[in-house]
Amino acid sequence: MEISQLETPVAIVDLDRLEANITRLQNYLDEHGIANRPHIKTHKIPEIAHLQLRAGAIGITCQKLGEAEVMAQAGIEDIFLPYNIIGQSKLAHLVRLARRVRLSLTADSEFTLRGLSAAAYRERLELELLVEFDTGGQRCGVQSPQEAAGLARLITRLPGLRFAGLMTYPLNDRTGLFVRETKALLQGDGLAVERVSVGGTPCMWEAHHHPEISEYRAGMYIYGDRYTVQSGAVTLEDCALQVICTVVSRPTADRGILDGGSKTFSSDLLGLDGHGLILEYPEARIYSQSEEHGHVDFSRCERRPEIGERVTVIPNHCCVVSNLFNQMVGVRGDQVEVIWPVAARGALQ
Amino acid sequence: MEISQLETPVAIVDLDRLEANITRLQNYLDEHGIANRPHIKTHKIPEIAHLQLRAGAIGITCQKLGEAEVMAQAGIEDIFLPYNIIGQSKLAHLVRLARRVRLSLTADSEFTLRGLSAAAYRERLELELLVEFDTGGQRCGVQSPQEAAGLARLITRLPGLRFAGLMTYPLNDRTGLFVRETKALLQGDGLAVERVSVGGTPCMWEAHHHPEISEYRAGMYIYGDRYTVQSGAVTLEDCALQVICTVVSRPTADRGILDGGSKTFSSDLLGLDGHGLILEYPEARIYSQSEEHGHVDFSRCERRPEIGERVTVIPNHCCVVSNLFNQMVGVRGDQVEVIWPVAARGALQ
């Protein structure tokens, strides 16, 4: 089947670009002796995770227990879940999963650690724990090396847990110092920081400047999007994920309406202007969206589309787009090669 | 099962409120002699559509052909699809659907009309067409009564099509005038405007001030959200859709992190401040989101949550939230009564 025969809006993945993106990051991390543990939240597709592993990744990263379950069922054996898992039913699910795969986790509080410990100890399991720290992301994570060291020591005291290292997101100038200070604090306890896991596609090519990093989690690098292009981490020609839309209306000389809106692209702007880049009309601006319509200003374009014309959109943020589609269509040239269900989409937390 | 036993983040629907919302709008429209044709894009659940029909709705509105297909398969017999359907495979699908249900459509261009006509004529079908007009929404729709009348006349000339009326979104002060002017233009042709279909929850209680309206499409009224509360159309106590989250981290005295982010709530702001209202902490502000985390500033709250505490969030925009969940949990009091798959979620356009 040719791409032109697919109904729109459709999310396609250029397989040549996907494979090149996988190879490029793997080679870079190999060259610098950093383990690659890609984040599958971007694609949520087991077959792509297997491509990443076959290229040399040591395991994968998931953001939800449900994602990890889907990946485990697809035969993936080493999963990092950098999330505070809380609550009886989730903890019960977690230990069942930990029987089947090598599972490592993060925590940033005594509360999370005590829950994990109790669940693991009951099942005679040992869970590998990294302490999450915050150096400006203002999400989860302890605020100081002293706090990090305190949780590391608590992990060694709690049954069913093993201290494995530190984790943060995103990488920045304070990352190295935080790690060194925490290591210094733990030296007296004889506690080694085996893993230092850092993530983020925009800063991935900076990883080798931070010798503290032992493993890297990148997600968006696999698809690319307008945001990662703007960050300089990938080029427009690397963008593997594209959404093909049809122009369904031309109500005025300047305005055109696409058949993709906020339920196709999400409303993530990430500081960008407009809701995506139309490759055939780079001067056009998707100035607003309704749920199933993209509203485009073509006034700056010399040529303007006819109703019925198909256009190719590079979305602002690939992770949320793949979360909105039930399937991704893998293409090579103008031919459809594979249709992947987005198997871990909508999985329970 | 009790609500407290559900894993978070979970989207729950208060069935008492849902039923009251259905009844309230139906009674109002009945009182004013306006047909009710609710928009199911908000819930995408066949069983809820049937509740709306049993309460007195004359049919439903869908925004995508795939949604209409799911609803037809659930036994719904009268579907309005106010979308320019374009392309051979979609038109083929459309006429198959039109054999099974009473299907009406909109168009705002000769291109759309000619495609529909050819597809319908080939199958010896007659499709009911409304002309979409634009009075400020800046989405689809013809720009003048003259254009509307021109398309109406074209419909009468094209085989396989029947002119049924006019459609717009949203309702505003120019709606009535546009309809009256178009009717006047068509009077000489002997063309009656049977249906005038208008939509939008924020302005639904204004419908009776516009005698031109013959049927109303509201979607969000069934769930309610922060946006419709702010518009004054519903109250906070009417909001049937709520998302229960767990506080998974308290990294600083002011900051708390929820287990729901942009893949739970979307990033729709709709002019509101923050990404949702936490009922237990109305002074808190969800100031940003990552994909699976909500970042909350609790500094203005007297009391602050502990890690592990569950909170109830009224989302900014219910339609995009229900599009992100695979299921909705219907509750009555603190008990789970039904679990509905969001059957038309992710359906093809």
Report on this model:
- 2 copies of one chain form a homodimer.
- Chain A has 349 residues and is an alpha/beta fold.
- The first copy, chain A, contains 10 helices and 17 strands.
- In chain A, the strands form 2 sheets. In chain A, strands 1, 10, 11, 12, 13, 14, 15, 16 and 17 form a 9-stranded mixed beta sheet that branches.
- In chain A, a hairpin with a 2-residue loop joins strand 16 and strand 17.
- In chain A, helix 3 runs parallel beside helix 4, helix 4 packs across helix 5 and helix 6 packs across helix 7.
- The relative contact order of chain A is 0.16.
- The mean pLDDT of chain A is 97.
- The interface between A and B is large, with 58 and 58 residues.
List the SSEs and their pairings.
The structure is a homodimer of 349-residue chains.
Chain A: E1 10-14, H1 15-31, E2 35-36, H2 46-54, E3 60-61, H3 65-73, E4 78-81, H4 88-100, E5 102-107, H5 110-122, E6 127-133, H6 145-157, E7 161-168, H7 175-187, E8 195-199, E9 215-217, H8 226-231, E10 241-249, E11 255-258, H9 262-265, E12 277-278, E13 285-290, E14 293-297, E15 310-314, H10 318-322, E16 327-332, E17 335-341
Features:
homodimer, 349 residues, alpha/beta, nine-stranded mixed β-sheet, eight-stranded parallel β-sheet, 10 helices, 25% strand
Entry summary:
Chain A is of the alpha/beta class. Helices cover about 30% and strands about 25% of the residues of chain A.
